[in-house]
Each structure stands twice: as C-alpha cells, then as structure tokens.
Amino acid sequence: MRRIALVTLVVDDYDEAIRHYTEALGFRLAEDSARPDGSRWVVVEPGAGADGTGLLLARAKNDAQRARVGDQTGGRVGFFLHTDDFERDHARMLAAGVTFLEEPRHEPYGSVAVFQDLYGNRWDLLQPAG
C-alpha cells in the first residue's frame, strides 16, 4: 500500500512551530530528533493515530526558503484538516488564538472554515458531510 507519509512545511523556528501545531491546532509531536548538521527532524501529526499525513517542520536555511515561509501555496488553501466534530474543534482553535479568515460555512460537502497557521499558510478546517 502506498500513501503520502509526510509533507514538508517550511517554518522560521522549530520550537515556535511545535508549540503552534501542538497547542493551538491540537496536533501531536511524533518526532523531534537532532541531525548532525544542527537541524532537527520534527514531525507533527493531526491526531493520536498514524493514519493521516504528517507534517515535517523544516526550518528555513536560506533566503529562498525564508521567502516561502507562510506562502507555500501562493495564497491558496494548501492544507485540509479533517475533523469529526467541527463545532468542538472550531471553538477550541478560536480559544487558542487561531485566526479564522471567515465564518463557518455549511456546504453540501460539509462544514468548513478557512484559517491561517502561525506563518500565514491557509488551511481548511473541514468536517466532511456524511
């Protein structure tokens, strides 16, 4: 079976990114290992299991990478965080200071609201219909 295991997200700082993804967005820290070159292998996952795709939080190393922090998809929603309880997670994220760019919408495909992560990347919080 094949699946996408990790997606790289370029960040400014490992520790602030870990705090944001674990505390504000409710991810779990799956791995944080030192690398010989001084970087770290930092993986966060959305939830208790390993069924979904994890994020590899990679600290920007040069100007080209720093220019992409917060704009990895050119301003489009690039990440989709599924939930089984939209109201619960929306309220928890608001209380944690997450910036939502719109009010929740209830579409034929599910309940959704666009939010920004710490760096400005756009995400959908989405509870699929069904």
Structure description:
By secondary structure, the protein is an alpha+beta fold. It is 19% helix and 38% strand. The chain has 3 helices and 9 strands. It has helices at residues 14-24, 63-66, 86-95, and strands at 6-11, 28-34, 40-45, 54-59, 77-82, 99-100, 105-107, 110-116, 122-128. Strands 5, 6, 7, 8 and 9 form a 5-stranded mixed beta sheet that branches.
How would you concisely characterize the structure shown here?
It is built from 3 helices and 9 strands; from the N terminus they run E-H-E-E-E-H-E-H-E-E-E-E. It has 130 residues and is α+β, with helices and mostly antiparallel strands. A hairpin with a 5-residue loop joins strand 8 and strand 9.
Tell me, rounded to a whole number, the average pLDDT: 94
Give helix and strand order, one letter per element, not per position: EHEEEHEHEEEE
Ranges where pLDDT stays below 50 over 5 or more residues in a row are: none
Structural class: alpha+beta
- The helix fraction, in percent, is 10-25%
**Assembly of the depicted chains:** single chain
List the keywords:
130 residues; alpha+beta; five-stranded mixed β-sheet; four-stranded mixed β-sheet; 3 helices; 9 strands
Question: How do the strands and helices of this protein lay out in sequence?
Answer:
Layout: E1 6-11, H1 14-24, E2 28-34, E3 40-45, E4 54-59, H2 63-66, E5 77-82, H3 86-95, E6 99-100, E7 105-107, E8 110-116, E9 122-128
Parallel strand pairs: 1-4, 5-9
Antiparallel strand pairs: 2-3, 3-4, 6-8, 7-8, 8-9
